Amino acid sequence: MKKCILLILFSFLLLPGCDPVSPFVSPIVSGVIMWHQGQATKYYETTPTIAYRAIKKTCTELHYPILKDYPILKDHPHKNDFHLVVGNNDKFKIQVNQIEPNIVAVVIRVNFMGDKPYAELFYKKLDTELEIVYFENGKPCVF
Fold it and tell me: What are the distances in angstroms from CA 11 to CA 22, 26, 29, 77, 78?
């Protein structure tokens, strides 16, 4: 009888959407995009400058105007971080944070509460733009 009860208990805990298990399973199900309090975070194996260039190119491809562009000051401990505010009606707040020398975290918040489909669309386009390097006069160009 105890084995039957344990089997039923574990079978309910392993079902998708079950509250006790979902905090542990949701990061695995959503892939590499982590959601926390309305903002999405995705990690890339690249430098902050390359991620910044790809974000600017993604904004021009998706026709989102860049309203504010804040590179971090040189005397700041995280001097390779970038902050952007993008879009007119749906404002994207984008941060590029250097975690390690070749690992960056791209954090996106859409509007006040966050909009998951918009952020996923932006990440999907950003993934393709990170694979492409645009050159102008023999040097990588910034958009």
Answer: 14, 18, 18, 49, 46
